[in-house]
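note to self: dont lose this again. the chain is below, predicted strucutre after it. 80 aa total, dont forget to put it in the shared folder this time
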Amino acid sequence: MKPVNYTSSLPSELLKMLEHYAVRFKVPKNRIIENSLKAYFDSIKKAEYTRSFKKAAGDPEIVDMAEEGLEDYLKILDEP
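---
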């Protein structure tokens, strides 16, 4: 994917931290920002999955379907 320029402003404290870690780890600042955004979006995705699984766990129809599917799976495992 081709990089696209993006301009933004950040609080000075964050910019100082960004500069500090870029120098400390000898990594470009944009790479730190990119990796941070990826980690943040991954955490959002995990939270969405957790929320959807909790919602499904409270739905009796979903629980019944899962249990029926598990019974079929266990039967398949017992077959030679």
